[in-house]
Structure formats: structure tokens, C-alpha cells
Design brief:
- By secondary structure, the protein is of the alpha/beta class.
- 56% of the residues lie in helices and 13% in strands.
- The protein is built from eight helices and five strands; from the N terminus they run βαβααβααβααβα.
- Helix 2 packs antiparallel against helix 3 and helix 4 runs antiparallel to helix 5.
- The protein binds ligand Z5A.
Amino acid sequence: MRAEPLRFVTFEGSEGAGKSTQIHRLEARLLSLGEPVLTVREPGGTPLGERLRRLLKESSPELAISPESELFLFLASRAQVVRQAIQPALAKNSWVLSDRFSDSTLAYQGGGRGFSPDLLRSLNRITCAGLSPSLTFVLDLPLSEAGHRLTRRKAGSGQGDRIEEEPPEFFERVRDTYRDLARLEPERVRLIDASRPEDEVAAGIWEIVSRVFGL
Ligand code: Z5A
């Protein structure tokens, strides 16, 4: 008999691609079926992780976070959420949906900042205690469209953040890395055209989730 896949699903992609929107739609759909669901975000998802998130997002010349410090702060947040939230939930047979996970490090610190993918994979293995998502959605969106969405959102909230200040080339490398991951691991990493209307994207994601997990 084939073992059932861990019910661990992650959402990845550039900022503004619609990850938070889609993770909440999937969560609502699973809850409506009576399924237990834990939704977490990275960085964050634990008291320590949420404090690290504030530091990582703060755009302050005084902090001057180096690429190395940044890498280890993201990993610290992940090590904590894996042990404090994700593993216990999976052990209780709950679904775990994570807004970003280890592939973000490959895309941003690897593609974006230039750290070696082999080094990052080794660090991710230690950080995640060997845990890997069964399914990962990469919401793929051209930079210009993501920019429009973020401008609209920022006009509403007035908030910006440190990594968003990187130049367009940085985000092109991030996007290319995600697309490479989808080519390298097509079973796990599904590239989703996020430029479509929200309902269409949600329907595509649900179709894959229900097929992979036999719902
Ligand atoms: N980072 C890293 O470098 N390394 C790591 O290991 C990890 C993270 C884990 C976290 O930022 C930052 O940390 C992120 C990567 C880095 N850096 N940046 N920059 P975050 O958690 O604050 O933000 P984010 O993850 O980048 O996501 P986001 O900006 O919140 O965007 P989103 O969740 O993908 O999109 P959304 O909030 O669902 O939607 C954005 C807007 O578009 C919103 O107004 C929606 O109503 C609208 N929307 C959504 N879907 C649609 C469709 N289909 N059509 C039209 N409009 C839509």
C-alpha cells in the first residue's frame, strides 16, 4: 500500500502574486469539508518568528542587516516554526498550509542574493529537520503586474518593507529561480499563472490539491 503524502502544502512566489489570498481560500475550502488546518506564514508563525519578521522587514539604515545575517534570521524563524507548530500539527494529521517556506530561501537568498544553492539546500535540511512539503504552488506573475498590485495595496496601508526596496533585477532573478525549481521538481512544485482572476487561480489550485490528496 502506498503511504499517503504528508498534508503539508506551501505557497511561494514574488510579492503581490496572491499567495495570502489563495492560501486563505484553500484553508476555507478545507475547513468547509471539516478538515483540521493550521495556516502559518514565514517569516513568522511563532512568537519568536513574528519578532524576527518585524526585524527582517524593517527598513532601517541603523540595522544594516547583512546578507549573511538575513539568511540566518530567516532560517531561525523556519527552525522554530517547524518544531513548534508544523511538526506537532502534522503529527495530529492536520493539514499545514505555509505562506512561504524553504523555497523562498532558494529564490531570494539564492537567486536574489547569490548564495550557492547547494549550501542553501544543506542549511534548509538542518533547519527543517528533513521535512519537505508534499506540494508547493509557485504563483507566477510578471513583475510589472505584481508592482501594480503592491502599489494599490500600499496606497491602502501606507506600509513598505526592506526587501521590496531591491532593484527590479533582483526580483527577476527570484522569479527565474522559482521557474527553475518548477522545472527541476515538477511533481512537487506547480507553477500557477497568477495573472488570472482570483476565482480561476483558486479553482486551478483546488483541482490539483484534490487530485494529489485524493479528496
Ligand atoms: N523572504 C526571504 O527573502 N527568504 C525567506 O526564506 C523567506 C522570505 C521565508 C516576506 O514578505 C519577505 O521575506 C518577502 C520574501 C522574503 N520579501 N519581499 N519582498 P511578506 O510575507 O510580507 O510578503 P510576501 O510574502 O512577499 O507577500 P505579499 O506581498 O503579502 O503578497 P501575496 O501574499 O503574494 O499577495 P496578496 O496579499 O494575496 O495579494 C496582493 C494584492 O493583490 C492584494 O491587494 C490582493 O487583493 C490582490 N490580488 C490577489 N490575487 C489577485 C488576482 N488574482 N487578481 C488581482 N488582484 C489580486
